[in-house]
Amino acid sequence: MSMFCYQCQEAAKGVACTVRGVCGKPEDVANLQDLLIYTAKGVALHRLEAQKHQWDTAAADKYIQDSLFATITNANFDADDMTARIQEGLALRDRLRSDLKQAGADLPEHDAAVWAEQDKQGMAAKATAVGILQTDDQDIRSLRELIVYGLKGTAAYHTHAQHLGYSNEAVLDFMSKGLAATLDDSLDADTLTGLVLETGQHGVEAMAILDKAHTESYGNPEMTTVNLGVRNNPAILISGHDLKDMEQLLQQTEGTGVDVYTHSEMLPAHYYPAFKKYGHFVGNYGNSWWLQNREFESFNGPILMTTNCITPPKDSYIHRMYGTGVTGYPGMKQVPVKNDGRKDFTEIIAHAKRLPAPASLEEGELVGGFAHSQVLSLADKVVEAVQNGAVRRFFVMAGCDGRMNDRQYYTEFARKLPEDTIILTAGCAKYRYNKLDLGDIGGIPRVLDAGQCNDSYSLAVVALKLKEVLGLDDVNELPISYNIAWYEQKAVIVLLALLSLGVKNIHLGPTLPAFLSENVAHVLVDKFGLSGIGTVDEDLQYFLG
Ligand code: FSO
Ligand code: SF4
Is 32 exposed, middle or buried (0-12, 13-18, 19+ CB in 10 A)? Predict the structure, then answer.
């Protein structure tokens, strides 16, 4: 077996990718990603010691967070970049180690704290010896990976918050604690299960700080109509999740004659008051991430990837792709960062001017912007609609989209939901039903889009508020059902966050994670009522009786 990765929903045969990722991740990159996580664990061991001495841990925290984020599904496919990151980590770890030694501190002795293979060949060999399968016990392996994947999602959200100048120390501390715990052979399944739940709690904190960062920087998302058509100007397409990149791109393209469109998870940028003022911020182009092969082709202009999800680009447009942050793909250019930390979009803007305007994909509009502030401003209307029976039930259908045919389930489920139900969504899962025209209930649209996957937090805020207004004791007494679609590790942290908030009976599809061992899955079923999905008709019957 040459590689082993089972971190996302599309793991081959529902088990693991062992030859090449279904996502396109080649074997060498998969193994180097394992080694990068192992290196980050070694840094974390030292960082925890440094914390005891109250040293500044910012460099270690940044390294750990970037490593977790860079190994998330579909973010970085670049072996050279992975190697450079590992080398950087080893140097950082060894500096910390020597400082700790000088201070007379305890030095961690785990192999992750001391291994040293600096050349490419040595690293490749080491990489195959530190993978997921090194943990023999299936349940321990499952729990360890559940923690690591939850931390990857947390790292992604916390990175975005930090880009806007917001940070949460407890979240950063826990990233090291959680990673170090996965190296500790003395921890049994019960202890690791407790850490999984702690991961969820810190996920809530990461999403909360990101929500604060977004809304304090750019205003509260508000009900917005987003244009789906195109204009006849050269343009840049921006995808991923980073709103700081979004802001800088809008600032630097203003007055240049170059338009800006969003793709996939960047669609919710249109909902923020701060971005609406830009006349050249035209609309959303296309659908969710996995359709990019077609849609990037017809866009004609340059594409900026701020985060995942990247699919292996075609030769016909890779020369138009630019990456930033932790993204990487061989042949994709990286946006330069100036000394003051600002991104320099000069090249991508000049590139856009040389290329034709986007080809039209569709006409029409989408309505979104129903994050907590907008929904709670409608609270009276919503509560009245629930109390007088106009709204029978809400369905949280947040999460991710993916390329497998079985995700048609979500389109059909949305279509077949009775007309007195409302869908609450966030993340790219919405593209399975957000263009269906499902109508409204007394002026409240039947699909309420809160925003990106991280804005799933908004849905929890709304649920907790409704519980309060309706005078209920338990969030599970609300007329809300959870039918969530997952794909990558940000959805893992959203799930763990919901569990830590006490939400029960979540249905997760299209398949349950391959990394849940039978026993770990049983715990989640028994304790939280987690379940997979059935057929649309069975599930509608289950939810609505
Ligand atoms: Fe989608 Fe990709 Fe946002 Fe994910 S674009 S799948 S959960 O990265 O992050 O929802
Ligand atoms: Fe396979 Fe998903 Fe891992 Fe890619 S990220 S190699 S598709 S399990």
Answer: buried
Give dist(CA 149, CA 35) in Å, integer.
15
C-beta contacts of 534-538 below 8 A and 24+ residues apart: 535/409, 536/409, 536/412, 536/413, 536/416, 537/416
Integer-rounded Cα radius of gyration of the chain: 23
pTM above 0.85, yes or no: yes
Q: Which ligand is nearest to the CA of 400?
A: 1
Domains 224-353 and 369-544 agree in fold: yes
Q: What top-level class would CATH report for the domain 1-134?
A: mainly alpha
Between strands 440-441 and 444-445, the pairing is antiparallel
Alpha helices in 71-137 (DSSP H): 79-102, 111-114, 120-128
CA of 73, closest atom in ligand 1: 8
Q: At 120, is the pLDDT very low, low, confident or very high (cuts 50, 70, 90)? A: confident
CA–CA distances in Å: residue 140 to residues 130, 136, 183, 193 = 15, 8, 11, 9
Percentage of the chain beyond pLDDT 70 is 100
Instruction: Break the chain into its structural domains and give their ranges.
Output: 1-134, 224-353, 369-544
Q: Residue 1 above 70 pLDDT?
A: no
Relative to the CA of 24, which ligand 2 atom is closest?
4
Checking DSSP bridges between strand 440-441 and strand 321-323, what pairing results, if any?
Answer: unpaired
The HSE-up count of residue 502 (CA atoms within 13 Å, CB side) is: 10
Residue 4's identity, in one-letter code, is: F
The matching CATH number, chosen from 3.20.20.70, 3.40.50.2030, 3.60.140.10, 2.60.40.10, for 369-544 is: 3.40.50.2030
Substitution candidate for ligand 1 out of 239, 289, 292 with most atoms within 8 A of CB? 289
As a whole number, the mean pLDDT across the chain is 97
DSSP string computed for 395-426: EE--B---SSGGGHHHHHHHHHS-TTEEEEE-
Q: Are 57 and 51 in contact (CB under 8 A)?
A: yes
User: Which ligand sits closest to the CA of 402?
Assistant: 1
Whether the CB-CB separation of 540 and 417 falls below 8 Å is answered with: yes
Tell me how far apart the alpha carbons of residues 162 and 145 are, in angstroms, rounded to a whole number. Answer: 25
End-to-end CA, the chain: 47
Residue 367: CB partners within 8 Å, gap ≥ 6?
Answer: 223, 224, 225, 226, 445, 449
523 CB within 6 A, ligand 1: no
| Residue 398 near residue 484, CB atoms below 8 Å | yes
Ligand 1 contact, 308 CB (< 6 A): yes
CATH code at 224-353? 3.40.50.2030
